[in-house]
Amino acid sequence: xxxxxxxxxxxxxxxxRESPVxxxxxxxxxxxxxxxxxxxxGAGKTTLLKAVLDLVDPVAGQVRVLGKPYRTVRExxxxxxxxxxxxxxxxxSVLDVVMMGLYGQLGWLRQPGAKERATARxxxxxxxxxxxxxRQISELSGGQQQRTxxxxxxxxxxxxxxxxxxxxxxxxxxxxxxxxxxxxxxADGKTLVVVHHDLxxxxxYFDSVLLLNVRRIASGPVEGTFTDENLRRTYGxxxxxxxxxxxxxx
Amino acid sequence: MNALVDVxxxxxxxxxxxxxxxxxxxxxxxxxALGTYAVLRRQSLIGDAIAHAALPGIALAFLLTGSRVTLVxxxxxxxxxxxxxxxxxxxxxxxxxxxxxxxxxxxxxxFGVGLMLLTYIQQTAGARQAGLDTFLFGQAATLVTDDVxxxxxxxxxxxxxxxxxxxxxxxxxxxxxxxxxxGLPVRLLDTLLMTLLVLAIVIGLxxxxxxxxxxxxxxxxxxxxxxxxxxxxMVGLSMAFGxxxxxxxxxxxxxxANLPTGPTIVICVSLIVxxxxxxxxxxxLVWRYLRDRRSSLQQPIADPAAQKGTS
Lengths: 250, 311
Hints:
Number of helices of chain B: 15
Structural class of chain B: mainly alpha
CATH architecture of chain B: Orthogonal Bundle
Order of helices and strands of chain A: EEEHEHEHHHHEHEHEEHH
CATH superfamily of chain B: ABC transporter involved in vitamin B12 uptake, BtuC
Mean pLDDT of chain A: 90
Number of strands of chain B: 0
CATH topology of chain B: ABC transporter involved in vitamin B12 uptake, BtuC
Largest interface: A-B, 35 and 27 residues
Number of domains of chain B: 1
Shape of chain A: globular
Distance between the termini of chain A: 40 Å
Oligomer: heterodimer
Largest sheet of chain A: 6 strands, mixed
Low-confidence stretches of chain B: 302-311
């Protein structure tokens, strides 16, 4: 692969109303890496993703994606927001939501057609819910909602993927499907950055890790970075919570 | 039966009734369509704020031009409604004040100024002002053919805008954060959608009035939501409900002496909401009652539909 890092974060500080959410972060993600971001609640994990996506204005510092400002490479970045960030009672179908991933390429005034439908169906097959294409999104389970969001990111056909807690509240089969998908994408040369809560599965699923708690505590290959000592420094005295209570909703 | 024939005959032969029915249909059509987004974005009350805020615009337009031409007054209403909307959006985005508080403040300030100006006009402009206060509760009988044309022209602009940016409005309403990541100008689109909403409201002011206009925005869409889970169908149904309420309100008020048109239209649309709340499949109260009873009669736990509903 080329030597340009997928993501470069330098001296990044983000604050909401004076209190810092991220403090002086330096962090690099190499291409084709499969990276987990872990840290306690309020550590700034989501904010870091949003800073990479140019959704929040940093107080200081710089973010580069594939060596360039986000604005100029947004077609190469796919985003999977937290499942709970939208209203799933919105009157629309699974296929419709997946096609939203193509709106950027479609441009103004053009409505999605047969070609876009085919692409969306392909992505749904990839996440194993082809048969739900015409289902209303209000009828989906948590795992199916997550797969729908993943399919929407897949049709973006990006190089770098940012995912905010894709494993949150999904069933075991969906979790398996997602991790297989992440591995496939990585084998295709994609870079994946995933906010991940479950410290138990983290070393098994991921190659690298960023331990975050407002500051960057440690980052690098899981082996050597994901140590008891670093976890203690990330989670404070609560290292007993190494296996946090499962937040499954099903 | 005879009464129905009489009504239909009057509709084609009576100029006033025809004009009022047409105007009410246009107003129902446009507010039904744009109201869908107000309801889905949980900003139903924005219509109330815009409608009340239009009053000082109407008064100022009259004071500045001395004209009572509908288009002139409606342009004043448009500008004032639009300014109020921008103020609400700006306050919400840049301060800790929440959307509903900003809305409440804007509504009362603009409406208060409107009432002051109206009183001033009544005391100074004499007979020339006659009819300006009809914008408070609306007076459909004052509609003339030119007014209906004005409404139709403004309504076409609103509907065209909604059609042209269909997928963009859908995305920014469903998932604005994702919309920003793919480069959509979300604030611009929000502002555009609000502007179309202002257009839809201004269209109805002469018929329904500033006080009741928000009902025409919210009620058809809320009723339509009961019947469908598909956005396109919801917009279509909402427009149909708006037209049905508009026309039947106009007809009913023509049959009964001294029955005001605007409030009658609002009662009609409220009836449609009540029927939809009770009877719509899946979401309706009767439907739910029957389903709960059926499932409790059979097996207390094994109802897959009920389980799906919770996730």
